[in-house]
Amino acid sequence: MINPEKNPEFLNDFLNYSATILNKSENSVKEYNYDMAHFLKFIKFKYKLTDVNDEEFIKTIDISDFDLETLKKITLQDIHAFLAYLKTCYQSKPATLARKASTIRVFFHFMCNKTKKIPVNPAQDLENPKLDKRLPKYLTLDQSKELLEAASNSSISSGHGNHDNSERNFAMITILLNCGVRLAELVNINISDIDFENNKLNVIGKGNKERTIYLNKACMKAINEYLKVRPVDGVKFNSRDALFLSEQKKRISRRTVQYVVKQELKIAGIEKAEKYSVHKLRHTAATLMYKYGNVDIRALQELLGHESISTTEIYTHVDNEQIRNAVESNPLANI
pLDDT above 70 covers what percent of the chain? Predict the structure, then answer.
């Protein structure tokens, strides 16, 4: 939860703007708050406006009294120093640094161009850290089948009882592997989001953007089998429409889904299972659809909810077998 009392007024104004005008999700606004609060604490430390004199305790600094005059003094070099501090003290990866830089850029655009409370935007020429080009990790087709087989036969609980959750867990993993939904999208699925007549599902993705996912036979069968045993009595009031429920009869949490997936991967005997996550199942779904389904890259972009086609294009580079076959199919190969 965001505590406005711990923030200077201008930061709360920015968060309100992000939530309403920019229509950012609740999680995005929380990230903005965390990123900017950390940045402002670093600035107070760097400018010696606090009694804290050890980088290790920067997060304990109070920023509720951070004033606009100090904000106006911030330079591009200060922002670079903050990113360097994150890399040195927290070993932050380029993707994390890029997100922090994006937050700072949006914040100063708001302060300079929207509210005009500061005359110069120090983040105007801020560049994104260069990202490492790494291919996504994913399960093979055989491993995916093994995972589904394991999920259909096991009854992993969330650690709070001996309930048989096999139908629920199987349905969750089936949707993850077939549709490539994000973790947040999965836990937020409501029963009313599903069009059972037309086998469609509406999900709310990043930036509160709604998209339609067409459910295949495997997904519909798994969902219907789970609904037969899904608790009805005693469900928490605000979770009555939630598709997936925890053993406490409330909407399942992200942590529980992550735990279930980890356990099912181990049961399936997937090598180095600890290196795979819920997000890796999203990569798996996208890779399998591209590799075996001849899915158009634009259709895949729409299905995954990617804002940029460049994000989706990574799946065109993961299939070395296709590349090898392309070379072998060259008519000059056997000359």
Answer: 89
